[in-house]
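Sanity check

After download, print the first record. It should look like this:
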Amino acid sequence: MHDIGMAIWFGGSLMGAVGLNGASSKVSDRRERTRVANAGWDRWTPVNLAGIAMHLVGATGLLMANKGRVARQRGVGSSSMLKLALTTAALAATAYSRKLGATLEQAGEVPAEGGVKPGEDTPAEVAKAQRQLRVMQWVVPGATGALVAVTSLHGEQQRPTEVLGGVLSGVFSR
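Expected structure tokens:
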């Protein structure tokens, strides 16, 4: 659950930034570009929420199953705290991105260069939300990608030689 949920969250956010938001600029009617991008994100949101929920349930299960290692094995507690911080950042970035997307949805059809790229004639409130989303579209895959990397580190820390060495190091450092 942990890894599949993470794959959904990371992969969907990256595809949205590269594919969906990028492709919206190809819609011929400039007034439909944000609507088309929003329609895609609206379809993705329930899948993304399910992926995030799966990841959180899986992460909680892994933490409970490995609480002894987290407490005793050198380095595991630190990397677990890093995972928590990255998860919190990714959740906040995802929620804020969704809030900005709602601003675009409420605006309806407005002229724009793309889903996250305002034009000169884009209303100010919509343009502001688009500029913020243009940054946030990279924050979510950045944070979730970093989570994938830290998860790999956790996998390495579970090797028997790492567990033994980390536990012994932790015992002797006290």
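If your output differs, re-run the checksum step. Summary of this record's structure: Residues 2-173 form one domain.
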